[in-house]
């Protein structure tokens, strides 16, 4: 675990996949062709905590969805890449925009399209319900499943490794 915490101390950007990470991975299609996704409110709070601590947050997803657009707008996530089946293209773009090195990036994914990015970042994370190959290549596997608090678990781990967690909590205690 010390190795994980050492990697987490360097993180300036956390990138998340959507389906299977921010959601359970279930896709619900309505008769009109629109889709529903369910996001965990605590995951959203974790992402806001990262932003409060000065850590950039990004989304890279192979699919495009108005539901994802709305959720990311609600969370004020500026770096949203949808429709990227080759996630490395989006990854390189955001690294260049933020002038960030691989070892300063954490990436959380659950399936094969995430693997090329996970192999390059400083801290790769998967969820326990991810494909086996993903768990094998992750530096860290969360205890909570995708869409059910795994993102919050990672956010808190990074904030604690950087000694920023207590300050954020203290701000809520003093309100």
Number of helices: 8
User: What share of the residues does DSSP label as strand, in percent?
Assistant: 15-25%
N to C succession of SSEs: HEEEHEHEHEHEHEHH
The SS-based structural class is alpha/beta
Radius of gyration: 15 Å
Question: Looking across the biggest beta sheet, what order are the strands in?
Answer: 5-4-1-6-7-8
Task: Estimate percent helicity.
Answer: 40-55%
Residue runs with pLDDT of under 50 for 5 or more positions: none
Shape: globular
Give an account of the 3D structure.
- The chain is of the alpha/beta class.
- Helix content is 41%, strand content 17%.
- The protein has helices spanning 2-9, 41-52, 66-74, 87-98, 115-118, 132-137, 150-161, 165-173; strands spanning 13-16, 28-29, 35-36, 56-61, 79-82, 105-109, 123-126, 140-141.
- The strands form two sheets. Strands 5-4-1-6-7-8 form a six-stranded parallel sheet.
- The mean pLDDT is 95.
Topology:
Blueprint: H1 2-9, E1 13-16, E2 28-29, E3 35-36, H2 41-52, E4 56-61, H3 66-74, E5 79-82, H4 87-98, E6 105-109, H5 115-118, E7 123-126, H6 132-137, E8 140-141, H7 150-161, H8 165-173
Parallel strand pairs: 1-4, 1-6, 4-5, 6-7, 7-8
Antiparallel strand pairs: 2-3
Summarize the entry for a quick read.
The chain is α/β, with parallel strands linked by helices and 175 residues long. It has helices at 2-9, 41-52, 66-74, 87-98, 115-118, 132-137, 150-161, 165-173; strands spanning 13-16, 28-29, 35-36, 56-61, 79-82, 105-109, 123-126, 140-141. A hairpin with a 5-residue loop joins strand 2 (28-29) and strand 3 (35-36).
């Amino acid at each position: 675990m010390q190795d994980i915490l050492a990697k987490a101390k360097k993180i300036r950007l956390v990138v998340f996949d959507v389906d299977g990470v921010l959601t359970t991975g279930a896709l619900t299609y309505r008769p009109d062709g629109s889709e529903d996704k369910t996001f965990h409110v605590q995951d959203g709070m974790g992402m806001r905590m990262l932003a409060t601590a000065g850590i950039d947050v990004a989304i890279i997803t192979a699919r495009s969805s108005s539901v994802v657009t709305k959720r990311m707008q609600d969370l004020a996530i500026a770096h949203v890449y949808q429709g990227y089946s080759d996630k490395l293209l989006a990854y390189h773009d955001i690294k260049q925009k933020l002038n960030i090195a691989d070892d300063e990036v954490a990436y959380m994914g659950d399936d094969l399209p995430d693997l090329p990015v996970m192999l390059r970042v400083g801290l790769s994370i998967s969820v326990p319900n991810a494909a086996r190959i993903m768990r094998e290549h992750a530096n860290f596997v969360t205890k909570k499943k995708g869409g059910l608090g795994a993102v919050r678990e990672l956010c808190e781990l990074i904030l604690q490794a950087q000694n920023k967690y207590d300050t954020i909590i203290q701000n809520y205690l003093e309100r």
